[in-house]
Design goal:
The protein has helices at residues 9-17, 50-59, 127-130, 150-160, 305-316, 345-357, 408-418; strands at residues 28-29, 35-39, 45-48, 74-83, 97-103, 106-113, 116-122, 137-139, 143-147, 171-183, 189-196, 199-206, 215-224, 229-236, 244-246, 255-261, 268-269, 274-284, 287-298, 320-325, 340-342, 359-361, 366-377, 380-389, 392-397, 403-405. The protein has 420 residues and is α+β, with helices and mostly antiparallel strands. The strands form 4 sheets. Strands 1, 20, 21, 22, 23, 24, 25 and 26 form an 8-stranded antiparallel sheet that branches. Strands 2, 3, 4, 5, 6, 7 and 8 form a 7-stranded antiparallel sheet that branches.
């Protein structure tokens, strides 16, 4: 796991340049501070053991990333998301989401965080996922499109006629002639473009662990209440509900004039190509409008090599956090545990600078009232015992037992900031 130190800025300096004098920072990857959960194709969630979390960290190490995605059908085994509840809220992504799949009788992982996507061939999936390999779901290599059958159009009408939302329920109207079905590829995203004389507006349908379904139905509809009328594109992964709606920022109208499906639809959606699905016209403020709705499939752009490492460093290496604690950490604590004292961003920056400037010493200090400090940078962490010797502040590397004394000015500031 030492290879991950390329994402710990302070560790980079030590490994690249070295120092005759021992340095206080010995940041290391810390799977014990992560929690991991895998989503299976069935929607079932399973917890990841610490060994599995280590496997995920190794699998998504950005070395030997592929230039091209594997060809052919892909069998989705499961998607693992790692969180760090000690330092972040549940919505903060602390490490790439790892999606494990098979193609061409080989095993791969797709790692994603924000706009960064990369793939690797690996030897095995985490042990907790291996037991569910026979439940993998197969996805085509390309996105396909087809017109809905008569019974599917009737189902669209029925579903849109059901009560939806909160009372008083809005009236929903389906235009069954616009209904199409997309055979979903394994990854990427879809753009729906609303094209008008005033410009184009795009809304995105991502393909991720939460939305990865073999099919998606797409149709045009209206929603009306006493206060508003709005148009939109309604979607469903199973031809039920149609409770997912995508619409432009201003989707209001006064009166609908007509809806027409495109005469010729493609059967395969080539990545990057925009295909018109249908058009509609309406009145708004006594002015006629016309819009054309198109669909575009986008394959993910895969990063590799130095470009990938550069993006990963930019994403993770500057994420710093510090926490004082009365008890030793075991890795399962939540951010709100009563014995934790989280440090502000400004104080965190001071702590990192002060530790970086500290000097090795042979004498320990007496334990402080908050005897432990754990610092996090990127996916790395390190714990110190905090001690005082007179006015001196002495930090002891909990793993190695080495002692480090803060500079006098830093020690004075430490007492001003952190002493009760």
């Amino acid at each position: 796991m030492k290879k991950y130190l390329i994402f710990c800025t302070l560790a980079i300096l030590t490994f690249l340049f070295g120092c005759e004098e021992e340095q206080a920072f010995r940041l290391h990857t810390a799977p014990e501070y992560y929690q991991g959960r895998a989503m299976l194709p069935s929607g079932q969630l399973i917890e990841m053991t610490e060994a599995d979390r280590t496997t995920v960290l190794d699998a998504c190490y950005p070395e030997d990333a592929l230039a091209l995605a594997p060809r052919g059908e892909r069998r989705w085994i499961g998607t693992v998301t790692l969180s760090q509840p000690l330092t972040t809220n549940s919505s903060t992504q602390v490490f790439p989401t790892a999606t494990f799949f098979e193609a061409e009788n080989q095993t791969f992982v797709e790692c994603q965080v924000d706009t960064i996507t990369y793939m690797k061939q690996i030897d095995a999936v985490p042990d907790s996922l291996a037991a569910f390999r026979d439940q993998a779901v197969t996805y085509p290599a390309v996105a396909k499109l087809r017109n809905a059958q008569p019974h599917e159009r009737l189902q669209f009408l029925k579903e849109m006629d059901k009560p939806f939302g909160n009372e008083p329920y809005p009236t929903r109207t389906a235009f069954e002639q616009t209904l199409v079905h997309v055979t979903m590829p394994f990854n990427g995203s879809f753009d729906l473009t609303f094209e008008s004389s005033e410009g184009n507006e795009r809304v995105t349908i991502p393909i991720d662990a939460a939305s990865r379904q073999p099919f998606r139905s797409i149709g045009f509809g209206l929603e009306s209440t006493e206060k508003m009328n709005a148009y939109g594109v309604y979607t469903s992964p199973n031809q039920e509900g149609y409770d997912e709606v995508r619409r432009p920022e201003d989707a209001s109208f006064d009166r609908l004039l007509g809806v027409r499906q495109t005469e010729t639809l493609p059967t395969t959606l080539v990545s990057g190509e925009r295909y018109p699905l249908f058009s509609f016209s309406f009145m708004r403020d006594n002015v006629p409008h016309k819009e054309i709705v198109s669909i575009t499939y986008h394959e993910p752009v895969l990063l590799r090599g130095e470009a990938l490492k550069r993006e990963m460093r930019a994403e993770f290496s500057n994420r710093q956090h510090a926490v004082f604690h009365e008890l030793a950490l075991i890795g399962t604590e939540s951010r709100d545990a009563s014995f934790l004292t989280h440090v502000s961003a400004d104080d965190t920056r001071f702590i990192f600078k002060a530790i970086e400037r500290s000097k090795a010493t042979t004498e320990p200090g007496d334990p402080a009232s908050m005897p432990y400090l754990t610092v996090f940078e990127g996916i790395c962490a390190q714990t110190f015992d905090v001690g005082y010797r007179g006015d001196d502040v002495v930090l002891t590397n909990t793993k190695t037992g080495s002692h480090f004394k803060l500079l006098r000015d830093d020690a004075n500031k430490w007492h001003d900031r952190f002493d009760d």
